[in-house]
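Anyone able to model this chain together with magnesium ion?
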Amino acid sequence: MSEPLLALEAVSKTYGGGYRLWPFGHRAGFTAVAGVDLVIESGAAVGLVGESGSGKTTLARIAAGLLPASAGGLRWCGRALMQLSRAERAEYRRGVQYIFQNPMTALNPHRRVGAALDDTLQGLTRMDRARRRARIEEIGAQTGVGAALLGRFPHQLSGGQAQRVAIARALLGAPRLVILDEPVSALDVSLQAQILNLLADLRARHGLAYLFISHDLAVMERLCEQIHVMQAGRIVESGPRDVLLRRPEAPYTRRLLAAVPRIG
Ligand SMILES: Nc1ncnc2c1ncn2[C@@H]1O[C@H](COP(=O)(O)OP(=O)(O)OP(=O)(O)O)[C@@H](O)[C@H]1O
Ligand SMILES: [Mg+2]
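re: yes, here you go
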């Protein structure tokens, strides 16, 4: 069997804590993620669901390499992150992309969309200008980011347009895993459906793996084959979508399911 694309092994994160002069001595800190194991196979769509504050974003940021874990570690294609060569690390950074809940905050307000996408591509590859332009047009066409949007500044975009730009940017470097942290929560319902369809298409087209975070179990049902339920920093239940949504075992999962209006 081939190695998983990304594996989190006993990952924990404690915020704050450490030694302080004031008030006195050692502070315990707050453990937002406590010993989580999570495997993402190549091409898999993995959902992570849990109530606010359960540690989903913290875990996702660790998986994306945006935040260091306090304990535990990551494996990328079977190799511990700590042991990767420079070139392999660059490959991991290109291979894992993160899409935020509010795309506007992730876009530089002073750069036109096209220039911002070009900056990203320059940071990830050694393509010359003409190839970068062709790549931006290619991915733009797939994500509904046409010439008109490329010429705009972020404040001139609607929420849906901004999320398309964020998706386009994430795909420029041909990632293998895209981490989506509540990517449609800030959008109205009709836009949500459009973006979810787009994400499903792009996954099929590019053979992407997704780590998809959402409160919304209907969204999970639409996009994810494997679902993990997180509570207070731990994964309390995991399973294939159909099993988990139809026959949840953990009381917490049952409460979550009961709390969310479901389609069908
Ligand atoms: N930088 C930080 N410093 C201190 N505590 C933090 C920090 N970031 C998050 N936390 C705390 O860690 C816990 C988990 O936060 P996290 O953002 O991972 O939750 P979440 O599951 O993504 O929640 P939501 O669904 O509201 O986005 C929360 O109690 C939060 O207050
Ligand atoms: Mg969050």
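The mean pLDDT is 91.
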